[in-house]
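Workshop exercise sheet. Pairs work together: one partner reads the sequence aloud, the other fills in the structure field after running the prediction. Swap roles for the next sheet.
Pair: D.N. / O.F.
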Amino acid sequence: MLASFQNKNLHAILVSESWLKPCLPSSSFCLPGFHLIRNDRLGRPGGGVAIYLRSHIPFTVIEFSQQHNSPGAEYLFIEVLFFNTKLLLGVFYNPSLTIDYFMSFEDLLEKFTPLFSHTIIMGDFNTCLLKNDSRTSRFTSIVKAANLNILPLSATHAFPNCSPSLLDLILVSSTTHVEKFGQCVATAFSYHDLLFLSYKLRPPKAKRKILMRRNFSGIDFDSLAEDVSKIDWSGVLNASSIDEKLNYFNSLITQLYDKHAPIRPVRLKHLPAPWLTDEVKRLQKIRNIAKAKYRVDPNETNREKYRKARNRCNRLCRDEHRRYIFKSVIEEDDSARVWNFLKSLGVGKQQRDINSQNLNLNSLNQHFSSSVTFDNITKLNTISQISASPTPDTPFFQFSQFTNSDVKKNILAVSSNSVGSDCISRQMGVPERMDNPEAPNSTAIKRSNKNTQNILSGAKNMRY
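Structure field:
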């Protein structure tokens, strides 16, 4: 089902009868670029409703069904904010043709629809509007009383050996804002049709991500080398403790790079898309030109040229995307790179921010000290093994003296550019291109090596 929703123009996906349970993490059913909002059924199999909403669109959950073992309608209503316009977006699921959900549904509409300028409710109501019976009459009267409109659809459910029925509906507050709607089959995963709606409201633009990065590309290596030679390391040597030495050393390095490679905001315009090859970009340019011509002169000839250019571009882009995924996931031997790529697509566990200030260390220590209990025999055996002298085959641990070249070799062996709590990255000791002997601009490389050697040599008398 998730593979059916790769269109970048979709803003929300409403799911009735999701079958999700609280034990199933949302990260296993995520869509890249979407936030999953769930209301799972508890106590019984099946059921549940959910909404996939674009992650840059603000929302607030305002109402959801609370049920455990008793059968009843299931729903999830959220408030979506489009600039200064509030939209009520809801998904509804009635699990049986015999359940009387009309009173609760009427209460929901009376409570929330007057508060919003626009309302969209979609779902499986299990009330066939192709029949002229009391359920149909009661449902339509409730919808009209709430000033909502039922968009006309054909039969949406076709179970084998049963007559088609119209159970899945789209309710909107204003038909003038409906640009397009309809249905399409979903034979791969459901007997119900997929309903779609294009509602003319301008959604908020995704906020561009801003990262704080040092400007290593703008370093004046001559000036940097001169300032490195002037650094006074006496404060590091005269410090009384190892922590003071390290803090003083880090402050000298940070001040040096604050001057020569200051931190600046970098605005990310687009997410990385390595599958966009030169050929894809060329076809995108042809497509955009054809689209511009069609807008200026919307005749049938220009429309056909634009359609062919668009389809050819989309087809090649999908092929390159699949080829890149296959190469990155199937043919990649490095498991770390595979998982990093999968995380970029939204696959895997979502990161959670942990506030260490709210962490009670005493409680944490008590938990681990009391969670596992050992009997006296196990304790005595463990103590005796720890107290026993090492066997001749066990190598003794000894501290050994290290040289400047050992320090430099280990610094150059670091491949991560992550910045720790000291705000110092690998690039601040190894400027870009230094670790690539075949890179262009050999003069800059020599200068980088010289600068790093000066920094290392400046601390040559320090021993930790």
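Discussion prompt: The longest helix spans residues 300-330. What would you look at next?
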